Amino acid sequence: MIQNYLILSVILFCIGILGVVSRRNVLIVFMSIELMLNAANLAFIAFSRFHESMDGHVLALMVMAVAAAEAALALAVVILLHKHKGKLDTDVFSLLKG
Amino acid sequence: MEHTVSYLGLIPLFPLLGALILGVMHISTCTGKPFSEKLYGVLGCIGPVISFIYALIVYFQLKGMPADSRFLIHDAFTWFSVGDLHITMGFLADPLSSLMLVFVTFIGSLIHIYSVGYMSGDENFGKFFSYMNLFLGSMLILVLGSGPVVMFVGWEGVGLCSYLLISFYCKDTDNVLAGNKAFIVNRIGDLGFVLGMAFLFWAIGASGFDYLSLRENSHLLTPGIGLVVCLLLFVGACGKSAQIPLYVWLPDAMAGPTPVSALIHAATMVTAGVYMVARFSFIYAHVPVAGAVVAWIGILTALLAAIFGMFQHDIKKILAYSTVSQLGYMFAGVGVAAYSAGIFHVFTHAFFKALLFLGAGSVIYALHHQQNIWKMGGLKEKMPKTYWSMLIGALALAGFPPFSGFFSKDEILFSALASGHTGIWFIGVAVAGITAYYTFRLIFVVFHGQPRDKKAFDHAEDAPAVMTIPLMVLAFGALCAGFLNLPGIFGGNLNVSHWLAPSLVEHHPHTSLTVELLAMALTIAIIVTGIVIAYKKFASGAEEPEYTGFAKFAYNKFYVDELYNTVFVQPYKAIGSVIWKSLEPNVTDIHVKVSSWLYRKAGTGFKIFQVGYVRVYAVYMVIGLSIISLLLSQSLN
After folding, report:
1. Of A90, A95, A97, which has the smallest distance from its Cβ to B615's Cβ?
2. What is the ipTM, given to two decimal places?
3. Which residues pair with B314 in a beta bridge?
4. Residue B145 β-bridge partners
5. I need a labelling partner for B71 at 20 to 30 A (CA). Which of A66, B311, B345, B555 fits?
6. Cβ–Cβ contacts within 10 Å for residue B430, how many?
7. What is the DSSP letter of B66?
8. What pTM did the predictor assign?
9. Taking the domains of chain B in order of start, what are their residue ranges?
């Protein structure tokens, strides 16, 4: 029943996208990105099972490792942003406005 | 091949390398403490001296060959190749270029040595030697070039160095303007040269564009094209060698340091035009009309410049006009197809005119940059070495036998008479008298009579040995160079003419011995008259004259500069300002303005997408990725 896994994966991914584009708190945006990564992981695992190969597992583990590294970096950025403006609202940081 | 020798390319390379090294040394120290003058002087003189040694080797190697196949070539590399035009960076040494080579490197070396003394204490000592070396290298490329294009490289190189050295004292605006004038007037001439080359290539250049091939194919040239080529090339020669109507830059060029005047504007560069005409003798010989034009312009320039020279106050201006005048003689010589006589006058002139300039430089040096002859006088006892060497130079310039100028000038006049150009001969003889007059006017006013400026006189003395020794060597040359080409009636056999014969296309006209002797006697009589008049007027101390009437007209050079200014310079300036003020902003700049306006408007349009919020950019990304995924899935199906 690979379709069910994939539908769940798509739903998770869309929730992630919605979170990124609609929420303004930096931490929530960050959590939404993690959600999208895990949706992708779920799809990898599902396909791996479907094809009876270990490739998907390897990639999923790799994504987790990268996500962990990214989390460390992103949290450091969040702290700096907070130090800079005293807020975690993404709309405060709009220096690129044309 | 026995005619190929690789060291030919080294001859211009040594001075060019010297220029590079000296230039780098000067630039690297121009803010800090400069290197010592001794180092600069030694490095500056090494290149020319080595080139001189190689020039002698070339000469002796040529001398050892049979007379009808005397030439050496060296093709360094192929420069470029377009269609039928194959240009090789090649060098050719034949009797003509070897003669030029020997005297250019010899006089160049002497003047470099002299400059070590003359320029001492100048803050740009290194720069001066760098430019001088660059000049000598370019001049050697000009002389040795195996074809018109390579010659043109040297031609432009010497033009550049002439400009740089005229404007050498660049803190004074007048000097910079004089440099500009020389450069611009030379560009007019160069246009003629380039057009001449283009016509020549178009007509007969397809099977090789170097002198040897051109000479072989010169019979294919139709008289009409030949005339056009000759006249256009002569325009180039007029620019470089200061003939009517482009002579105006040379007197102004005296703004440069005196060794520059001696080397570039008397002995070597300005004779390049004569060399070019002689080089192309295989074309000029077939077009007598072009030759006549060359000869008449030459002799009229000689007359005009000699008249100007009679009334000048500035010691260097007098010599400058005499240079223009002597160049006129040379063109008269090559114009009447007496190429070897013209080149021989180039050769002797280089000695005596370099000598006179270096002597004048010593006088100027001793009097702390005083150039007005009416502020000098009586210097004979204070500067005996300079006096005696300059006297030899003056006698040679005046053409007094047996000094070198006599033989070369008489050869030209005799050729003009023998080839039936009586008018040219007549003017030439008259100019010889005028030359004698103004030369000895200079000598008598500067060295004889009573000192006019007592204070400067008391401090005057002969220059140091590094300056007087080159003077004496040149004086020896001015005295003896004429004997190299002794004509038949003095028991000689025209050695130089015979040496040059394989490079040139000429035939020696013959007249009776009586006519030759009579003409010679007349010339000598006129010269002696000129000297005697100068002696009567100036030897016992004359005062500065008030010029009126014709003299004033001639002192102001017939107002030719003013005329050119009104007729050419001002209209050009007016056209330039019209273009600058109305044509450029409204016509040529339009497309630049339109495209910048378009970009600015487009930018304003796209600006609204740049809202600055991260989440909006995320939306763009999602949209973009969705479209790409959609397209990908479409293409997979």
Report:
1. A90
2. 0.88
3. B372
4. B91
5. B345
6. 16
7. -
8. 0.80
9. 351-555, 562-636
